[in-house]
Amino acid sequence: MDLSKIKMVVSDMDGTLLNSKHEVSRLFLEQFQELKKRNIQFVAASGRQYPSMADKLNEIKDDIIFISENGAFVKKGDEELSVIPINEGLTQELLEIVDSIDGAYAMLCGKYTSYFDGKSMSFLEQLKEYYSHYEVVEDYAAVTDEIVKIAVYHGISAEKYIYPRTKHLDEQVKVKVSGQNWVDLNHIEAHKGNALQKVMDSFGINSNEVLIFGDYNNDLEMLSLAEYSFAMANAHPNVKKVANFETSSNNEFGVEKVLEKLL
Question: Which GO terms describe its molecular function (predicted)?
């Protein structure tokens, strides 16, 4: 494997760069400094909101590109590079569908703040880990913020209980199982692959010059952009089918092991 041409490193966060305690390793932060010295751009790509991503990567947040909300919001430093909101007319229709699914709870996601109607306290506890900036509202109709994603949570399995009831919406919105408990609904053009392609184009990066890591279905499009695409050992089977290589799990420094070879 010849990684000598790599100019950009892209990683998903949960299940990939972060361990099961949702922590970034000190080793990665040290490796990042070496990436920076070599002018290799690092991109964090996640279904998380931007403030939550920035909190996790606080030490390096001013030097990296954030692809947040599955590609609906892209930011570097103080500059907003891209915003793709959900069609305003679709939001209410989507909320009604989610409301009809037993055990499912929805959240509206703006660029910097997420909104939750407080129906499930257990969901609220999950929310705090992935959405550090949120508001509890009595009525979603009162939210005037531009909505870039609707995140839908199920306490047992999103793939089993939410996805079958929402997959028919695929021609209207991007429907992605983004984790064990989550299905995300975005604008049809808002996904990590589309966002990353725009970033790569702006930097003049080719498919053999980027290293990409992922573990779940919302990583599929971006993994397909690279020759050096890596699935984590803990990845969803769909991801292992798409990725060209496999590395160790997120709890066994899978990203860091590949970066050691690069550096």
Answer: magnesium ion binding; phosphatase activity
Fold type of domain 88-187: 3.30.1240
Six-digit token string for 35: 């990436």
- Strand 104-109 versus strand 149-154 pairing type: antiparallel
The pLDDT value given to residue 141: 87
Instruction: Specify the pTM.
Output: 0.93
Cα(28)–Cα(31) distance, rounded to whole angstroms?
A: 5
Top pLDDT among 58 and 123 is at: 58
* Per-residue CA distances from 227 to 3, 217, 234 (Å): 10, 18, 20
Helix (H) or strand (E) holding 151: strand 149-154
* CATH superfamily of the domain spanning 8-83+190-262: HAD superfamily/HAD-like (3.40.50.1000)
Tokens found for residue 84: 């793709």
**Amino acid of residue 177:** V
- Whether 88-187 and 8-83+190-262 are alike in CATH topology: the answer is no
pLDDT digits (tens, 9 = 90+) for 25-56: 999 999 999 999 999 999 999 999 999 999 99
Rg (CA), the chain: 18
Determine the number of helices (DSSP H) and then strands (DSSP E) in the chain: 10, 14
Which sequence spans correspond to the domains of the chain? 8-83+190-262, 88-187
What is d(CA 169, CA 94) in angstroms, rounded to the nearest whole number? Answer: 9
Burial of 37 (0-12, 13-18, 19+ CB in 10 A): exposed
142-169 pLDDT, tens digit per residue, is 899 999 999 999 989 999 999 999 999 9
